[in-house]
Amino acid sequence: MTAKKIVVVSSGLSTPSSTRQLADRLATDAVGLLRERGVEVEVEVVELRDLAHDITNHLLLGFAPPKLEAALESVASADGLIAVTPIFTTSYAGLFKSFIDVIDPQSLTDLPVLIGATGGTPRHSLAIDYAIRPLFTYLHAIPVPTGVFAATGDWGDGGDGVRSLPDRIFRGASEFAGLVERTDRSQRVSDPFALDRPMGHLLGGLAGE
């Protein structure tokens, strides 16, 4: 049986990063659940902080340097994507959105996505459903029902009557693992109406360069 490939995209800016920590926890639970079911898994982590200059250059010039090209190819060949971003000013990080903008518009079609986000306070958790989930839905990905938000206070005991962070991570990972197990990348459907270049390139007159 061919191993399932999970790509983990983390757009945390600091070191160490709570965004990367959440991404790792989500991946660990998902991989563990898949292996319990006898599914072999390969995991690749993409740290967008390390690709920031390449992403900007790609947006400006329409050319992906080798490291960014490798990351884009990994997403395109994945059986599942774990995408985690910090929340800045009530929405996803600009670096996160810029990476999504340079992905081939058809790469995410029918791809299971586990969404994670981090922020200072629980009130930012709504950004998962009003900002991040619609982004992946628009790109014809399959976001799992449970998005996992981790506020600063969630990295403690979580015993305030709200479902604890480990419980939320496990629930999201369970939904994600179920979709990844059934995913056949060879059967993923391409959208015939998708743009062959990001909209920013077309508006910037770069489509023919």
Automatic annotation (TrEMBL):
Q: Which residues form a coiled coil?
A: none
Per the UniProt record, one Pfam family is FMN_red
An MF annotation (GO) of this entry: FMN reductase (NADPH) activity
Q: Which UniProt keywords apply?
A: Flavoprotein, FMN, Oxidoreductase
Domain (NADPH-dependent FMN reductase-like) spans 5-155
E.C. number, please?
1.5.1.38
Q: Which domain of life is it from?
A: Bacteria
PANTHER family per the UniProt record, alphabetical? FMN REDUCTASE (NADPH)
Question: What's the protein here called?
Answer: FMN reductase
Q: Which organism is it from?
A: Agromyces flavus
Organism lineage: Bacteria, Bacillati, Actinomycetota, Actinomycetes, Micrococcales
